[in-house]
């Protein structure tokens, strides 16, 4: 039998965070994806990203639509961003939805625990595609026709020689097989 109550177990599992740690996470998410952001104000897109990455949005009790609605409620009418004070107000509105059956203050502490110390996740961004089609298309050993002439046996490109017909100015006809043997034939006759 456990000595901890159910609410203590949940708070230990979820973790509780201080308002200062939540503010650090707020600043990290506020500047995510925006080079001009100062970290003092957060737009709606980054608010929803924070909610998703910190598992405030669980798909059942809180959805991304709920997060958008709460964001619209707390921001000023003409503004497109919220300050940290407005962010705290938004969390106060989301906490009872996320943790049903908990008191307002306890739910808010659990929500702080989800957010505290988190950073924006960059999952699945700019991955290199590894597909059989891509491998087949980029393997120069499988090229045919005129494209095959652009690469040597190792797969390295020949450069300009592979793209253009450079005229042979050696003086020999293209199909002549004895190129470079003239000197060998002439020298033995001169020695006599």
Largest sheet: 2 strands, antiparallel
N-C termini distance: 115 Å
Radius of gyration: 35 Å
Residues in helices, as a percent range? 40-55%
Strand portion, in percent?
under 5%
Protein name: Tubulin polymerization-promoting protein family member 3
Organism: Albula goreensis
GO biological process, one term: microtubule polymerization
Biased composition (Basic and acidic residues): 146-166, 182-192
Give a written overview of the molecule.
Helices cover 47% and strands 2% of the residues. With 192 residues, it is mainly α. It has a two-stranded antiparallel ribbon. Helix 4 (64-74) crosses helix 5 (84-98) and helix 5 (84-98) packs across helix 6. The longest helix has 15 residues, at 84-98. The protein starts with 5 loop residues before the first helix and ends with a helix. The model is unreliable at 1-15 (pLDDT under 50).
Give the topology.
Elements: H1 6-14, H2 19-30, E1 42-43, H3 44-53, H4 64-74, E2 81-82, H5 84-98, H6 104-115, H7 132-138, H8 160-163, H9 182-191
Antiparallel strand pairs: 1-2
